[in-house]
Design the sequence.
């Protein structure tokens, strides 16, 4: 049982490039979410989804796009990378009121 | 606005000493509450959760937390800290609508011999 799988683990982008961070879960969880973690700021919610075809914005959605075509996958797209998007990104999922299950994170550097 | 506050950015304790990490929440109704731990370079691991009932909850690794409605607090405690407890600790809440989980800014714990 893999849980929540994020790829890649590390990524370096140049300003203006686009990319997709992948997230997949095999627990049949309805709820999936993306957070970014920055020093001293904790985890901030970017986007979340309560089921296939349903997404909504979190606290810091600007510059990011998501879609949820299947229950298992919830990719996060950076449309035009900026240095301010340098961060560690975590995908998490849960079912109902259960605690979040986290992936191992993607460390992104934008130069 | 719904929020979770961890007032202490950094705490240093001696190995074997007791530990208390503070967490306060601001929600219209009592949210579901969680404590997570993150070791350097790792993901987040759930320590314990509070949904309802007994206000003292036990978690893994010898941690416990006490929910106090009157103080809007959910403080994490451990009677005797081990060097392996050095990590960053996050308090989190699942509130109204049961959709968004909000995290505090974290407390970094340093354990000295």
Sequence:
């Amino acid at each position: 049982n893999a849980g929540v799988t994020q790829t890649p683990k590390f990524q370096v982008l140049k300003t203006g490039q686009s990319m997709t961070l992948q997230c997949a879960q095999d627990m049949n969880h309805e709820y999936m979410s993306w957070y970014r973690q920055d020093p001293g700021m904790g985890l901030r919610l970017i986007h979340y989804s309560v089921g296939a075809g349903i997404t909504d914005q979190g606290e810091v959605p600007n510059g990011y796009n998501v879609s949820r075509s299947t229950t298992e996958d919830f990719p996060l797209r950076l449309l035009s990378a900026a240095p301010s998007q340098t961060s560690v990104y975590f995908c998490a999922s849960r079912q109902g009121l259960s605690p979040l299950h986290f992936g191992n994170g993607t460390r992104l550097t934008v130069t | 606005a719904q929020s979770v506050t961890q007032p202490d950015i950094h705490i240093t304790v001696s190995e074997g000493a007791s530990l208390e990490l503070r967490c306060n929440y601001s929600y219209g109704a009592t949210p579901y509450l969680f404590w997570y731990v993150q070791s350097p370079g790792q993901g987040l691991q759930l320590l314990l959760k509070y949904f309802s009932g007994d206000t003292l909850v036990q978690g893994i690794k010898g941690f416990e937390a006490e929910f106090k409605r009157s103080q809007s607090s959910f403080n994490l405690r451990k009677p005797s800290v081990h060097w392996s407890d050095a990590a960053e600790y996050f308090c989190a809440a699942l509130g109204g609508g049961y959709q968004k989980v909000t995290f505090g800014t974290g407390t970094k714990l340093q354990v000295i011999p």
Q: What stands out?
A: The mean pLDDT of chain B is 93.
